Amino acid sequence: MEALRPLDALNEARNKKVMLELKNGKTIIGKLKAFDVHINTVLEEAEEHQDGQLIRKLGNLFVRGDTIILISPSVE
Amino acid sequence: MEALRPLDALNEARNKKVMLELKNGKTIIGKLKAFDVHINTVLEEAEEHQDGQLIRKLGNLFVRGDTIILISPSVE
Amino acid sequence: MEALRPLDALNEARNKKVMLELKNGKTIIGKLKAFDVHINTVLEEAEEHQDGQLIRKLGNLFVRGDTIILISPSVE
Amino acid sequence: MEALRPLDALNEARNKKVMLELKNGKTIIGKLKAFDVHINTVLEEAEEHQDGQLIRKLGNLFVRGDTIILISPSVE
Amino acid sequence: MEALRPLDALNEARNKKVMLELKNGKTIIGKLKAFDVHINTVLEEAEEHQDGQLIRKLGNLFVRGDTIILISPSVE
Amino acid sequence: MEALRPLDALNEARNKKVMLELKNGKTIIGKLKAFDVHINTVLEEAEEHQDGQLIRKLGNLFVRGDTIILISPSVE
Amino acid sequence: MEALRPLDALNEARNKKVMLELKNGKTIIGKLKAFDVHINTVLEEAEEHQDGQLIRKLGNLFVRGDTIILISPSVE
Questions:
Q1: What ipTM describes this predicted complex?
Q2: Is C63 in contact with D72 (Cβ distance < 8 A)?
Q3: B38, C4, E73, F41: which could form a disulfide with B65 (CB 3.0–4.6 Å)?
Q4: Domain locations in chain G as residue ranges
């Protein structure tokens, strides 16, 4: 199956664990629940990580799209 | 219940205590009263916190959306 | 009375003393006379403050909205 | 007389001396000749000032709106 | 064959290996699967590289367009 | 003659020598040939200057509008 | 012949060698193949230069418009 648009590809990651890298250097890992065209994103069971270590648990989380660099659904 | 759009998820946090992280590094905690599509946000009983400590009370507060990194409704 | 939109909440602060925090770290206090959807804001009797000290009086003042972090109507 | 919109307030300053503070830290003083919704601004007899000292005369000047923090018509 | 619009040129790189340089200084190499008018981009088998060395494998990856400086399809 | 809109004022500088100050701190001097609503600007015989010294000749030059702080037609 | 709009001027440089200066301080030289209203730009035989020295060859290259400061078609 071929994803032709970036948001279609994001959609395939819905309800899966994803990693977000933010412009302030932080890494957030959580289950992708929702996103919109601005890439505003809602995660469940979100956690802030640094160098592979858990920094703090954030639970449900709304992330403003313009602070996101990348979203990777490939979290082991 | 499934929130499909990020603003729907934010809406579920209305009238609840939320934590805002801003691009200038500040953390604001308060009761979420209103927001719009730019994520302009109004809080009640807002407080600025740093390292878990209360820095100052801000009362009612309007926060311009483009300064917000994330909003977490999971404040204990 | 419930303010459902952020600009409605700002509107309740019209003609009252408000505190603006700007992205360049400055704090401006003055009477809120006007604002628009960009949060472009006009104050009367505006003053620049730092650490609770008056730095200078600015009188009437137009502040471009995109430089504003937050607006607090709760100035004692 | 009540100015209800920020640009109306700016309009009252047309042909008067105003002070502009720019995001690069510079202060420009001059006679306000024109502005638009982006706050693109044209001054006459513009001067760059620093710490109350005249740095250089700039004459007619077009300032791109997104570089402006504030405009004060209250220049003595 | 002549590409007259930038997105047409990007389209010719679809399903090919490309290098992305991001505003945070990072280099990402991967197979270009999708992009949109904001240059939001989806890569497969994405890898972060630094000074020609592989830093980490990212697998499928969504990159927000406003963080991209350049995209080069000429990866050997 | 009164210029009521900023772009009208810029238009009066067309085919005249102007000075551009850019957000990266550079000063460009050249003959203004064209501009648009984004303040994208085309100069002829453009030169980069620093502290009143010519750094390099750039000839014809397209400058992206969002990098411009100010344009002064008052170049002696 | 008079170019009245900046993009017309850019268009005259199509298929010619141009120099791009980017906001991250890099200089790219290459043959201008395509651009759009956002100044997204495609170059052929692109090279990164620094202080007049070739740093690396980039071949075909898509550059996101918002990272461009200036484009000079006057490359000797």
A1: 0.92
A2: no
A3: B38
A4: 6-72
